Amino acid sequence: MDGKRIAQLAPGIGLCVVISLVAIGLQHLEELFTGRPYLEALVIAILLGTAVRTAWNPSLHWVPGIVFSAKTLLEIAVALLGASISFQAVMQAGLPLILGIAVVVAAAIGASYGLCRLLGLPKRMAVLVACGNSICGNSAIAAVAPVIGAKSEDVASSIAFTAILGVVVVLTLPLFVPLMGLSETQYGVLAGLTVYAVPQVLAATVPVSVVSTQLGTLVKLVRVLMLGPVVILLSVIAGRSSPAAQKSLSFSKLVPWFIIGFLSLAALRSWGAIPDAVLSLVMPTATMLTVVSMAALGLGVDLRVLGRVGGKVTLAVTLSLLVLIAVSLGLIRLLGIA
Known about the structure:
Elements: H1 3-34, H2 41-55, H3 63-81, H4 87-93, H5 95-118, H6 123-136, H7 138-148, H8 152-172, H9 176-180, H10 184-194, H11 198-205, H12 210-225, H13 227-238, H14 243-248, H15 251-254, H16 257-270, H17 276-298, H18 311-335
Helix pairs in contact: 1-2, 1-3, 1-17, 2-17, 3-16, 3-17, 5-6, 5-18, 6-7, 6-8, 6-18, 7-8, 7-13, 8-11, 8-18, 10-11, 10-12, 10-18, 11-12
């Protein structure tokens, strides 16, 4: 990375770091006065970033660094998190859970699409909302859009509300633990099946437990891998052969590099190739990068956008999410996950 690029990124990254430091400071104050962090720095960073973005629209001077923090730093953090995962824990989850994830994704896409069409949304818009809710939010929407030939306004509306609802899910999902009496394992599976983005799983599970975080991340990564088959299937159905559609089918689109990095580090950890001394450095680094990324994600959410998104889209996305949660809870009960 040359000096010009660093200078271009510095302002936005610096802003995200400042917000992150404030969030970490507020968490320490929580611990000082209450004895425990009811809101983790991850969540506080999202809230602070969202508040800043709603009150102030960053100019182009800030945007490159914010985008870099929200994407690249976030992906690095997720890859590093693989060092905390052991495949032995994956095997304990079992093949039924892995197959169940695929069933949940398929069922959620079908149900969401049906709801959207019932509410009168166009077919392409319905596909975007269904795939975004059921797989991985904005990433799924961006991957599916060129395959089905979605209009730019449909993509913008889907992504705008997904960004806002994604933050709402992160903040409210932990309430399911006391309200429904979920165990740490059950909650981890629920978070992995319902939260939109991989990094957001961290924000939703870290306040609960390490077990929830590890299992939630694992389940979410398996869910993300469902994007590949879905995009290929939609491409076949659409019968598209445009350059845009072909690009969406590239290996890097179907299996992002950070998933490969995550799985590689998980494999090294499982084989005992990562010493504890190295792990003690990797995990704090991953945590800090995640907080910075959360601040950047918050800076991309303007609450005022909610008022400009159509009521049908708002209702469709919300109902689709509720269906996904219901199906996920059903899977947890069906598999007898304790």
